[in-house]
Amino acid sequence: MSGETSGIVCRSAALTLSDGVVLQSRLWHPNREGPWPALLMRQPYGNRIASTVTYAHPSWWASHGFLVVVQDVRGQGESEGSFGGFGQETTDTSETHAWVRQLQECNGRLGVYGFSYQGLTQLTAAESAPPPDCTAPAMTGLDERRHWSCEGGAHWWHLGLGWGLQLAALQAQRRGDETAWLEIRRSLEEKRYLRDGLSLLRRHDPEGMALRWLQSDPNNDQQWMVHRPPESWLQRPMLLIGGWWDPHLVGLLDLWHRSKVAGGQPSLHIGPASHLEWWPETQHLMLQFFQQHLQNRLPQEPKPSHQLWNITQHQWDAIPAAGTSGPASWVLSSHGLACIDPSDGALVAYGKGEGSVVIVHDPWRPVPAIGGHLGITPGPADRMTVDQRSDVTTFTSAPLVDELLLSGQPLLLLTAEADQPGFDLCISLSRLPAEANRVEQLSTGIVRVRGEEALQPARRSVTLQPLHATLAKGDRLRISVAAAAWPAIGVNPGHDAVPCGAPSPEHRVVTLTLELADSTLQLNPFDSGRLTLD
Fold first, then answer.
1. What is the pLDDT of residue 301?
2. How far is residue 40's CA from residue 58's CA, in Å, rounded to a whole number?
């Protein structure tokens, strides 16, 4: 099948793999004499969609002199076989690359692009496989636990269930099971999936990757896969695109670090983006990258190799040199009323922490997650209303006397214990602008504690989402501590007899005590070598 629109030819093509499975693709290229360098995307959502939720349509890329190949991975879309997730891609990727290079429309040069699942398919191959000429992984990572499904020992709840059910619905559609498809769709539309999502996955996709993740222990290394790209692939030109409110950001930074260690020179751009909503200039950023490395064209308006979007100043900055960020650490203090009186809890630079705070977590009304990288509506958020709850304790700095740059990954350390064998610490870092009555959430993080260790006072470590933001003179900085972030993560029941998830009659009220004497908030800069990326 082929067609032509506005000077672009589109046709279907099939690859028969060595095991006999046939993978289907759609190809776009200019309606003029070729051949052309190829751009390859391998994805599980149907090649006609072609990731147009974030990328320009393949015909746009083809209009700039590329052969664009969008392939359905094994067991998805129009391709044959059974879908097994990331583990299947190592062999299939290598065979696909060889096939694309020998297409009559291809001049032998190959670049790969795509985000999320399509980002990881760019990097999975046998160690001996020839690398593509360049890669452009966006919003992806290599560690199926830390970069895809868990944070701080807690599963991503609404994200894990929602994505898993999307894949389950695609499988139901493939086998013609309309009843299952409608059941999944209604559960998502009516938000019932937050409670019944696991049972739906067990019923309709029992062998699926998402269910396997949700049933694996976030604290057991042996249950999780970390993919290892060939070193030669990490050395090739690489464009990394991430977003401050994307759950895969630490995975992208891990790729950046791995490429540099391997001897590569990756280009990193982190912008004002969530997983599905990007800044418009990304299309031309990627186009310039592919034109340079596949068409030998230097960009007319070259971008810096590394750019960070300043969340508060709304401008692009270079990665700061070491030592140019603000104070290295802050401490928390309270006279015991930090849950009730916002003036009681203090965040002090280079001071000494003191006091304690008691938080009562009631699972009937768990503290909601808003915005951020794991929320149902990701992105910037005003958390003033949330911070006014009596089960959220806040620690706020005095007005800043100078401008303060926060660039890197925040880490909070404080001593906590509970009266039940299980609790969560859900942390938010926010800016209180001098000129407005708002609490602008900048970064969030989670740690989960289960079992008898929750009953003992111990110093807990919470890693937050990386950020790059400048606070103006007169602004204040705030740390907020809660015991839930529903439904970003499942509610901790306070014991091991039932799993974390939607509130149930078996969920217990948990009294959480924070001892602040040895509390520390510190910021690890991007180039410090101290980022926690796995």
1. 76
2. 10
Tokens 């291809």: give the residue: 106
The alpha carbon dihedral of 188, 443, 466, 412 has a sign of negative
Please give the C-alpha separations between residue 145 and each of 125, 127, 209, 228, 360, in angstroms, as whole numbers. Answer: 20, 23, 12, 14, 30
Tokens of 516: 């602040």
What own/partner pairs with CB < 8 Å and gap ≥ 24 does 183-189 have? 188/162
The confidence score (pLDDT) of residue 325 equals 58
Could you tell me if 144 and 224 are in contact, meaning their C-beta atoms sit under 8 angstroms apart?
A: yes
Q: Which of 75, 54, 62 is nearest to 26 (CA)?
A: 62
Nearest partner of 516 among 354, 309, 305, 310, judged by Cα: 354
**Measured CA distances, 177 to 47, 183, 197 (Å):** 21, 10, 18
Q: Coil, strand or helix: which one is 385?
A: helix
Instruction: Identify whether the C-beta of residue 73 lies closer than 8 Å to the C-beta of residue 42.
Output: yes
What is the Cβ-side half-sphere exposure of residue 244, based on CA atoms within 13 angstroms? Answer: 26
Q: Indicate the burial class of 347 (C-beta count within 10 angstroms; 0-12, 13-18, 19 or more).
A: buried
Q: Are strands 356-361 and 510-524 parallel, antiparallel or unpaired?
A: antiparallel
Overall pTM > 0.85: yes
Of 213, 119, 113, 204, which is closest to residue 167 (Cα–Cα)?
A: 204
pLDDT tens track for 429-478: 999 999 899 999 999 999 999 999 999 999 999 999 999 999 999 999 99
CB atoms within 10 A of CB 178: 9
In the predicted model, residues of the chain with pLDDT beneath 70 are: 1-5, 322-327
355-406 pLDDT, tens per residue? 999 999 999 999 999 999 999 999 999 999 999 999 999 999 999 999 999 9
Closest CA to 296 of 524, 133, 440: 133
Q: CA-to-CA distance for 482 and 424, rounded, in angstroms?
A: 8
Give me the pLDDT at residue 1, please.
Answer: 40
